[in-house]
Amino acid sequence: FAAINRLSHNCATVNSSEVDIVAINDSFIDPNYMVYMFQYDSTHKFHGTVKDENRKLFVSGKPISIFPTNIKCGDAGTEYVMESTGFTTMEKAETHLKGGPFADASMFVMGVNHEKHDTLKIVSNASCSTNCLVPLAKVIHDNFVTMEGLMIIVYAITTTQKTVDGPSEKLWGDGPGAASIASLLQLVIPELNGKPTGMAFHVPTPMTVIDLTSSPEKAAKYDDIKKVVKQTSEGPHKDIWATLTARLFVSCNFNSDSYSSTFDAGAAMALNDQFVKLISRYDNKFG
């Protein structure tokens, strides 16, 4: 029951009266420690009440069943399963499959291709970085036609990156890389296949920034690019992503920001009409 699951719980229960969290699967920590993490999260505070009783969590008075290994989602009345540990195949998610739905998942990004999932029961909402990058990349490509792009992600440190040397399941330099995000971008927007690549840096901050350098086929003044991005962010997907028009922010200002992507117009720049650097920000866990 790590950070993304706790934050997903908070978003679902605080922002919607139509969602009830009924079950949690975690084989690593006991309920008492779940309570501790809820109460003392150093980045995202939870302001409700939390207690454990008879192997159930009671969050703001509502009971949540806990399944360490044998996941009985059906017994808990589960209608939807949100898998947040990175399983994307039936083989790895077999324990979920026994008690609830899961399979090899098609990928969708809100504000880009989410309306295409109507007939599917099982979907992937992609990664946080993908949700930040793809809306911005789509706007640029739809309006100016991307010839090539290079992205740099200054990525918020996660639990798998150690601040001192120590044993780990990953090499110390490993982590979510921008090259893999580029491949996901191409999966969501196939017409960009072969055009983007990138790299990532991990820093000890809870927020993340994406730096997208793009070479559009159609020459455009930076003011025109800003205008198009701003218009799009104020349109049908205004609850998904936003545009900042003044450079008055630092990364910590985006703590608990609910947008998938916030285009920082004041931090971006253009070398010429066919070479532009675009900056977008997001809360690594919350957006």
TrEMBL record:
The keyword Nucleotide-binding applies. The active site is at C128 (nucleophile). It is found in: Cytoplasm, Cytoskeleton; Cytoplasm, Cytosol; Nucleus. Its EC number is 1.2.1.12. One of its GO terms (biological process) is regulation of translation. It catalyses: D-glyceraldehyde 3-phosphate + phosphate + NAD(+) = (2R)-3-phospho-glyceroyl phosphate + NADH + H(+); S-nitroso-L-cysteinyl-[GAPDH] + L-cysteinyl-[protein] = L-cysteinyl-[GAPDH] + S-nitroso-L-cysteinyl-[protein]. One of its GO terms (molecular function) is glyceraldehyde-3-phosphate dehydrogenase (NAD+) (phosphorylating) activity. InterPro entries: GlycerAld/Erythrose_P_DH (IPR020831), GlycerAld_3-P_DH_cat (IPR020829), GlycerAld_3-P_DH_NAD(P)-bd (IPR020828), NAD(P)-bd_dom_sf (IPR036291). Residues 12-128 form the Glyceraldehyde 3-phosphate dehydrogenase NAD(P) binding domain. This is Glyceraldehyde-3-phosphate dehydrogenase. It comes from Mustela putorius furo (European domestic ferret).
